[in-house]
Amino acid sequence: MTEKLEPIRCWRATVPTDWIDYNNHLTEGYYGVAFGYSGDMLLEELGFDANYREEHGTFYTVESRVRFLREIHVNADVHVNGWLLGCDEKRLHWLQELYVEGNEEPAATQEALLLHVVQGEDGEGPKVAPMKEPILSIASNIRDKHLAFPQPDFVGQAIRSLR
Predict the structure, then answer these.
(1) DSSP 35
(2) How open is the CA angle 63-69-74, to the nearest 5 degrees?
(3) 135 domain residue, yes or no
């Protein structure tokens, strides 16, 4: 029997009133809040915790692209599914999809590239460095499972120039 391909269900909430803008739907910045919280939860799935940060480093998001596809209104129950599209010893590439309960199509997506960094010596700024175990193995295993995910055509695309 083939294992069913499942995303990581990594965050859920009910949209509060103070997340709503003058157009009566979720304001732009709170999509980022949702994806930020869910991204932290995706990292936890990889074994990334306070002990790891203290001993081995952290992750910085260095590129992110959000696509706003549908309006989200106050009191909507929302959740985020995450897919690990790629990883190597220093980078994670993932796709997150924000859903309103009861709707099978995402309301928004976020694609992000993260770098693993450590603090430089003698107070130097952070430097890119390889991930330590068990995070690299866990990420590789999840990536291998998610390779069967049909990659959407928008992945890896940029905003079109108006020039």
Answers:
(1) H
(2) 105
(3) yes
Phi, psi for 109 (deg, rounded to 5): -135, 155
The H or E element spanning position 156 is none
Q: Give the pLDDT of residue 87.
A: 96
Domain count, the chain: 1
Domain boundaries, position 91: 8-146
Q: Are 67 and 153 in contact (CB under 8 A)?
A: no
Q: Percentages helix, strand, coil for the chain, rounded to the nearest 5?
A: 25, 35, 40
Question: Is residue 151 domain-resident?
Answer: no
User: Could you tell me the pTM of the whole model?
Assistant: 0.90
Q: What's the pLDDT at 1?
A: 39
Dihedral sign from CA coordinates of 142, 147, 148, 154: positive
Residue 98 has phi, psi (to 5 degrees) of: -95, 125
Contact 154, 66 (CB under 8 A): no
Structure tokens at 157: 């695309």
Q: What is the CATH number of the domain that holds 100?
A: 3.10.129.10
- How does pLDDT run across 9-26, given as a tens digit for each residue? 889 999 999 999 999 999
Say if 153 falls within a structural domain: no
